[in-house]
Design a protein that fits this description.
heterodimer; A: alpha/beta; Ubiquitin-like (UB roll); Rossmann fold; Oxidized Rhodanese, domain 1; eight-stranded mixed sheet; five-stranded mixed sheet; B: Cytidine Deaminase, domain 2; 3 helices; globular
């Protein structure tokens, strides 16, 4: 069958600028296949990497969309006309997440307090009323949650929900400036609530001293207009993203490590979601946490402040939010970069053929490699700090290997330990005596497991033990003169 | 680069005012010529086809949609006129004539995207943009009023 295929202008750069092509085939599929064979460039434009037709292209046979016929299997006759038709859309600004009807009146005290907002044409009384009506949930009251809670409270967000399961520790104070020295040992949500009250008593604060999970996430997030993800782990990030997609809420995201931070607004209604950007987390243990790798104290202050800025913009409306864009910061070089993120039409939660419909059906533990890690860790034998102390006192022959970084050993040294970085273990295994026990130590007992597995893979046969919970436990249980970090 | 007569440029502004506070939208017919020295194309607008904004009720103040069915009719009309679809126009009510992120995400290369800002019932600035072939950047396009 010979048919005429009409090519829209946007695709003509792939067909040598020809607007009409004569092609043969018995079905639409065969015609399109012949088009792709004759003009291979069109294939990329019409189909994605997996060979599925791109969302913006519609195929018409005569004046009927093939979706209403037999799709790609629709048969064609001699003399038929096939047209490739793009869908066209656009728009101006993002609307506010708060409907106009919900805006709440301002009192005279509020007008004075928020005067600098009211002077901005873009915010004005209308925007400030929306802030008053808005409910924002901050998940995580650590480094990122600190400026979020402070600035959102000061800006007059009517209701702020705080979710965190942890208590304030002294190692938090270097960056989590919402908590003070005397808050150590208190639940973070309680400490943050006090701080918000001090900044702005007009704000209603709801505290949730719980761990967010697949069972409670939807009920909790449903009550709020915007969610700020200020957590520090992949399981929570996927959980928050998925709950937000299912409920149609924006997820204002931030993350950081050492000197690098990133932030974006994942809002499936308007653009890509977190899964479009990161379909899967990295293998568990590959990316160290801030507790393992450290973080510059100011960095979460910068990233969390950008998140607060985006939350406020979503509430006010009419701005250009960070939707479909990922902003990254290298604070050491002081360089911001912006990456475009596209919506993945095949995204398992916000795509056209979404497979994740309920949070409870998705195994977040397994997806984030948390179960697998436990299984892999199981065969590694651990030794308690007190037991190690006893064996040393008994004069047992032992080799102790410290796999920490040089700058960590500058904080505290482990007595009589041999120093071998993980990267050199395999080739330096002959320095170990396989006839006696070797004990591996690191800060928290995680990298030492990696060290033991690395040596096993390299064929080392001697007995190996992991100092359970690392040198910090030794400092707590055995030698209290040593610092913990 | 896009060439358009004063009359057609004025017509786009009037459409923007007519549909305010909603967005108007329409199709630009004309001739598309070989690329000039840069990567962008040269278009000469010969006529317009105002079309219905098919976005759902209540969202048309900041969104526009031209359905595939409307586009099919427009393609056929363009051919009847011996012209091509060279781009689209729409209005930004109470917002500057610069493409939004939503515009970028839904745009296609080659076409001109003419945007007119309408501030409280009155069409003000009018600009045109062309999407890069990798679809990542909207480049401003020079408008020549003839």
């Amino acid at each position: 069958m010979a048919v005429t295929v009409l090519i829209p202008t946007t695709l003509r750069s792939f067909t040598n600028r020809r607007s009409e092509l004569e092609l043969s085939g018995n079905t639409i599929r065969e015609v399109i296949q012949n088009l792709a064979d004759e003009y291979p460039e069109t294939k990329k434009a019409i189909f994605d990497e997996e060979g599925k037709p791109r969302a913006f292209i519609n195929i018409f046979l005569g004046d009927t969309n093939i979706k209403k016929l037999n799709g790609y299997d629709t048969e064609v006759k001699d003399g038929d006309t096939v047209m490739l038709i793009p869908a066209i859309a656009g728009g101006s600004v993002e609307s506010s997440v708060i409907e106009d009807g919900r805006a709440e009146k301002l009192t005279n005290d509020e007008i004075m307090r928020y005067s600098r907002h009211l002077l901005l044409q873009e915010v004005g009384v209308k925007g400030q009323k929306k802030l008053k009506a808005a409910k924002v949930l901050i998940v995580g009251l650590g480094g990122l949650g600190t400026p979020l809670a402070q600035y959102l409270a000061a800006a007059g967000v009517g209701t702020i929900g705080l979710v965190d399961f942890d208590e304030v520790e002294s190692s938090n104070l270097q960056r989590q400036v919402i908590h003070g020295t005397r808050d150590v040992g208190r639940p973070k949500v309680a400490s943050a609530k006090d701080a918000i009250r001090a900044i702005n008593p007009l704000v209603k604060v709801e505290v949730y001293n719980i761990l967010l999970n697949a069972e409670n996430a939807l009920d909790l997030i449903e009550e709020y207009d915007v969610v700020a993800d200020a957590t520090d782990n992949y399981k929570a990030r996927y959980l928050i993203n998925d709950a937000c997609v299912l409920l149609g809420k924006p997820d204002v995201f931030g993350a950081m490590y050492q000197f690098e931070g990133q932030t974006s607004v994942y809002y499936a209604k308007e653009g890509p979601c977190y899964r479009c950007m990161y379909p899967a987390p990295p293998p568990a243990g590959l990316v160290p946490s801030c507790a393992e790798g450290g973080v510059l104290g100011v960095l979460p202050g910068i990233i969390g402040t950008i998140q607060a800025n985006e939350v406020i913009k979503l509430i006010i409306g009419g701005s250009q939010p960070l939707i479909g864009r990922l902003l990254t910061l290298d604070a050491w070089k002081m360089r911001f970069r912006e990456l475009k993120i596209d919506k993945d039409p095949e995204c398992p939660i916000c795509g056209k053929h979404a497979t994740i419909k309920e949070l409870e059906e998705f195994d977040y533990e397994e997806f984030c490699g948390l179960k697998k890690q436990e299984e892999e860790e199981a065969p590694v034998e651990a030794i308690e700090a007190r037991v190690l102390k006893q064996r040393l006192d008994n004069g047992d022959p032992l080799t102790i290997v410290d796999v920490r970084e040089p700058h960590e050993r500058a904080i505290v040294k482990f007595p009589d330990a041999k120093v071998i970085p993980i990267g050199q273990l395999a080739r330096r295994q002959n320095e170990l005596n396989p006839d006696i026990d070797t004990i591996f130590i690191c800060k928290e007992g995680k990298r030492s497991i990696l060290a033991i597995n690395t040596l096993r893979e390299a064929g080392y046969k001697g007995p190996m033990y992991n100092l359970k919970d690392g040198i910090n436990t030794w400092a707590r249980d055995v030698d209290r003169s040593m610092p913990q970090y | 680069m896009i060439y358009i007569t004063r009359e057609l440029e004025q017509q786009i502004r009037r459409e923007g005012e007519k549909y305010y506070p909603d967005e108007c939208c329409g199709i630009l017919f004309g001739e598309l010529s070989e690329q000039d020295s840069g990567s962008q194309t040269v278009k000469r607008v010969k006529s317009l086809l105002p079309v219905v904004n098919s976005f759902s009720d209540g969202e048309r103040y900041h969104r526009f949609l031209i359905t595939p069915e409307t586009m099919l009719q427009a393609e056929l009309e363009a051919r009847r006129r011996g012209q091509d679809i060279v781009g689209f126009y729409h209005s930004h009510p109470d917002h500057p004539a610069i493409p939004s992120e939503y515009d970028r995400a839904h745009a296609l290369p080659v076409y001109s995207y003419v945007i007119t800002a309408v501030a409280a019932n009155v069409a003000v600035e009018l600009n045109s943009f062309e999407l890069s072939s990798d679809k990542h950047i909207f480049y401003p396009e020079e408008i020549h009023i003839i």
